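Summary of Year 1 activities. Much of the first year was spent building the evaluation harness for sequence design. The harness presents a backbone, in tokenized form, and records the residue chosen at every position. We chose the following record to illustrate the format because it has been used consistently in internal testing since the harness was completed.
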């Protein structure tokens, strides 16, 4: 459950780069979200980036992408839980799964369904909702504190510190930062009990560095080839000189 739904500014579901439905509290966030979805890192289940006190978080389940923009003060575990609720709601709406196998989606074609999903999620996350009240009363009856299950390891404080360190705030446009600087990508490792591993996200800048490395490698390779050829010529010249000395010129050939 999200402690404060007002910290969610934008949310959407996209099929590859096509936004099927969206929720926005501010004008202009739709265009920004479209740019972010287009540069979403492929082959990763989760990714987040914090800039200007806002967190941009992706939950990727190929070919669908669940994306949200929230306040940086919202805990990462709560933002991820919010995206998981959107995913569950979308899967419930899809029913038998016929929607999941489609490939000819048009923009905003599932806006009506998404509006219904977002209303249910926001209602369930509201502290004054009946579901939230039942959860609080249940926790009180058991005499235990209601806590979140750690999503980033055995120690939730260490996991959240790690997440905040990897998604540290920087100044600038969020989408440009996604494409113009090297960041860390959190990949869920189901085989290791749902832990997270860090992988560098290749960007245009790193691509230029790799190009420069290839040029240096070619120069080193050429230098080595020339060294080998010169050594071969030197050895051949020495052997030819020895042969001339033994045969005293070309007498061996004449005989």
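For this record, the design step produced the sequence shown next.
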């Amino acid at each position: 459950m999200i402690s404060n739904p007002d910290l969610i500014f934008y949310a959407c579901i996209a099929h590859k780069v096509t936004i099927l439905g969206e929720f926005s509290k501010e004008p202009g966030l739709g265009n920004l979200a479209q740019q972010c979805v287009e540069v979403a890192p492929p082959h990763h289940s989760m990714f987040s980036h914090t800039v200007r006190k806002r967190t941009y978080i992706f939950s990727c389940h190929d070919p669908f992408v669940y994306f949200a923009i929230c306040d940086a003060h919202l805990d990462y575990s709560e933002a991820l839980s919010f995206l998981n609720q959107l995913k569950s709601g979308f899967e419930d709406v899809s029913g038998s799964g016929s929607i999941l196998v489609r490939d000819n989606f048009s923009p905003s074609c599932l806006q009506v369904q998404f509006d219904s999903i977002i209303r249910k999620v926001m209602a369930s996350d509201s502290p004054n909702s009946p579901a939230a009240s039942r959860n609080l009363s249940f926790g009180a009856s058991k005499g235990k504190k209601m806590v979140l299950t750690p999503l980033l390891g055995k120690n939730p404080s260490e996991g959240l510190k790690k997440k905040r360190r990897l998604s540290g705030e920087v100044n600038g446009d969020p989408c440009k930062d996604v494409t113009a600087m090297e960041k860390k990508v959190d990949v869920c490792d189901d085989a290791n009990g749902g832990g997270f591993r860090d992988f560098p996200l290749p960007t245009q800048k790193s691509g230029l560095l790799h190009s420069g490395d290839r040029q240096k490698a070619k120069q080193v390779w050429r230098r080595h080839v020339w060294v080998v050829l010169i050594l071969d010529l030197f050895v051949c010249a020495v052997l030819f000189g020895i042969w001339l000395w033994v045969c005293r010129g070309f007498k061996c050939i004449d005989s």
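The helical segments are 29-38, 76-94, 111-125, 130-142, 156-166, 174-180, 204-247, 251-254. Quantitative recovery figures across the full test set are reported in Table 2.
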